């Protein structure tokens, strides 16, 4: 948690610096503005990822019935929070990777555009449009994570919330034992 707080503070300062740099780049009409926009997006994603990780600690239980186990982690609201956190975490990881890919492609085109034929065939990337498309794509891919868990209302031997696969196995055992 302490490292996350330090990362949030440092990345917030970095965002402020990047915004000043972007403002100067616009005044001077330099071509590296898009690189800084990709860097800014990546830093903001890192800030949100650290915030999500801090929220995730509500649901952490080190030992099954240990003293480090939060009394909140079995509540329905904490289980819903864990499902939402898993979804957002997955979304941010995909989004971060795609944003870095856009940064690398833009950087490659700026540095080596004339040297390699395949680089010249890559389309010019407009940072904000690319970032928006990446967010939508990441959101769609991450929707699966919402349906990965199910709220655990009463089965104390299972996780809180429990995986859908565990719920399916439990129903199969109960169904098979009834015959």
Summary keywords:
179 residues; mainly alpha; elongated
Explain how this protein is built.
The chain contains six helices and two strands. The chain starts with a helix and ends with a helix. The chain is mainly α and 179 residues long. It has a two-stranded antiparallel sheet with strand order 1-2.
Describe this structure in a few short sentences.
The chain is an all-alpha fold and 179 residues long.
What is the total tally of β strands?
Answer: 2
Q: Tell me the overall shape.
A: elongated
User: What's the average pLDDT?
Assistant: 80
Contiguous runs where pLDDT drops below 50 for at least 5 residues: none
Report the radius of gyration as a whole number of Å: 22 Å
Q: What does the main sheet amount to?
A: 2 strands, antiparallel
Structural class: mainly alpha
| Span of the ends, CA to CA | 50 Å
The number of helices is 6
Spell the H/E element sequence. Answer: HHHHHEEH
Strand content: under 5%
Percent of residues in helices comes to over 70%
| Arrangement of strands in the largest sheet | 1-2
Produce the secondary structure layout:
Layout: H1 2-28, H2 33-56, H3 76-112, H4 117-121, H5 127-146, E1 149-150, E2 162-163, H6 164-177
Antiparallel strand pairs: 1-2
């Amino acid at each position: 948690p302490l490292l996350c707080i330090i990362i949030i503070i440092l990345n917030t300062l970095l965002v402020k610096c990047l915004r000043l740099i972007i403002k100067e780049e616009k005044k001077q009409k330099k071509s590296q503005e898009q690189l800084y926009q990709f860097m800014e997006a990546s830093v903001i994603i890192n800030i949100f990822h650290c915030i999500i990780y801090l929220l995730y600690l509500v649901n952490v239980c080190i030992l099954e019935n240990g003293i480090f186990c939060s009394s909140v982690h079995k509540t329905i609201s904490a289980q819903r929070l864990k499902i939402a956190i898993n979804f957002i975490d997955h979304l941010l990881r995909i989004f971060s990777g795609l944003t870095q890919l856009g940064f690398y492609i833009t950087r490659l085109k700026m540095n080596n555009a004339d040297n390699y034929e395949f680089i010249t065939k890559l389309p010019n990337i407009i940072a904000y449009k690319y970032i928006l498309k990446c967010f939508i794509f990441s959101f769609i891919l991450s929707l699966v994570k919402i349906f990965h868990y199910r709220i655990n209302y009463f089965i104390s031997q299972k996780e809180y919330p429990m995986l859908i696969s565990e719920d399916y196995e439990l129903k199969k055992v109960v169904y098979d034992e009834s015959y």
